[in-house]
Amino acid sequence: MGNKENHSSRRKFLRNSVGALAAFTIVPRHVLGRGYLAPSDQLTKAVVGTGGMGRGHFGYAGTRVVAICDVDKTHIQKGLDALKDKARGVKTFTDYRELIQLPEVDIVHVATPPHWHGIIAADAAKAGKDIWCEKPMTATIGEGKRLVEAVQQHGRIFRLNTWFRFSDRFYGMGTTVEPIKKLVNSGLLGWPLKVTVSRHTGFDWKFFWVGKTNLTPQSVPKELDYDMWLGPAPYKPYHPHRVHGTFRGYWDYDGGGLGDMGQHYLDPIQYFLGKDNTSPVSVQVDAPQQHIDAVGTWRKITYTYEDGCQIILDGAGTETKAAYIEGPNGKLYPGFKSDIPDLEKKLAAFPDPEPQVTDFVEAVKKRQKFALNEENGHRSATIVNMGKIALQLGRDLKFDPVKQEFIGDEGANKLIFQPMRGPWTI
Known about the structure:
Elements: H1 3-16, H2 29-32, E1 43-48, H3 52-55, E2 63-69, H4 73-83, E3 91-93, H5 96-99, E4 107-110, H6 117-126, E5 130-133, H7 141-153, E6 158-160, H8 178-186, E7 194-198, H9 226-230, H10 256-273, E8 282-286, E9 300-304, E10 310-314, E11 325-327, E12 330-333, E13 337-338, H11 343-347, H12 360-366, H13 374-393, E14 397-400, E15 405-406, H14 410-414
Parallel strand pairs: 1-2, 1-4, 2-3, 4-5, 5-6, 7-10
Antiparallel strand pairs: 7-11, 8-9, 8-14, 9-10, 11-12, 12-13, 14-15
Helix pairs in contact: 6-7, 7-13, 10-13
């Protein structure tokens, strides 16, 4: 029997005898065919963006890097150097569009500046790849909506790389998020709740991520494809402060400390408040007038949900005695301290939160939705992007969480989908 016929008959047998799969302990991937992974297989990964963040994700268990991509050739070399003896056979690219077409790639890890996240992740989904994406998920609300559509239309598994809703100590709270979720679910604090995110509750807004307004154009380094680095963003003359480690200070690419840390801080709040399928209905800002290009600082951003729950981002640090969570019946402070007597003893009587799918490798192999996926990730990214728009416009806004658009503000709605330079689109 010819090789082609042999593969065809094996695929036909597997389609007609699904139960037979359970009998396999080790199944070569070529037996199962394209798109089917044996549980014993190690997943292959391609990383787009090999700056410090991208290189830091080379070594995840259960995956093997087979390709890397960066618009800066020095970053590509640093990536190869970081892989050391595992660099042999790794393919290198300066254009991600070539990388995502590699048939041997299972997962595309998007570790670029945020203005590229939506486009690259959506293109990867269309190319049949699963996706691991850095935060914030997208730089605009509109890109998030389109990315959700692309991931679901093409049946991909998506993971956003902020993990605090399911692992690690949650900054100044001194605990993982699980007991906080359990406390909120118990109703012991009452309802509605107010969450204050500030340096006094353990969350630093990193106001060193501010842009400069007096940049003098400079020559583009020969190793950098600056036009490709800009991609969909408006053309601005090159200056080293715009790129690599300091890009967060410019609205075209990110949103300062809010863009950098917002999804880390706010995604767990969406989770423990039970708001994964909705968004705030208003955002209020107290901030100096923002520069059109360079991100500045802000004093306070207040989000309000339809049921009265609020999230207060205290940038100025004026809420010195605020609890992290405050409800009608009690408060929770950093270190999981509370004014509710015998809190931990009372909590023991309540059920633990529902388990989550937190192993991305297993989620990909079993085609299970990951705990932090395209849908809830888009909702927490939307909080960040609502705040960015309100800051840029310098005014309070009302939001329709169903239509995912602003109410009665044409200027704000224009920023939901921001123009992209050709040929880029999502």
